[in-house]
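Progress narrative, Year 2. Work on YjiS-like domain-containing protein from Ruegeria profundi advanced from sequence curation to structure prediction during this period.
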Amino acid sequence: MAALDTTRATTGSFGLVGRIGATFASVVNAVVEWNDARVTRNTLSGLTDRELDDIGLCRGDIDVVAEGRR
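Result:
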């Protein structure tokens, strides 16, 4: 008769391959976040001061908004 251990978690990645996959996913995520911030910063920088004021921002807020801290 075979025994089945049901106390272990069966979700998530296992072993070296799982760690490599998780590292790759985190690198891809970091690149995507960097690109989103870059696009946001460039778009907001292209607006006039009046347009920024219309959406409640000033030039000093661009980096804060682009990094998602606001």
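The two ends are 60 Å apart (CA to CA). Residues 15-45 form the longest helix (31 residues).
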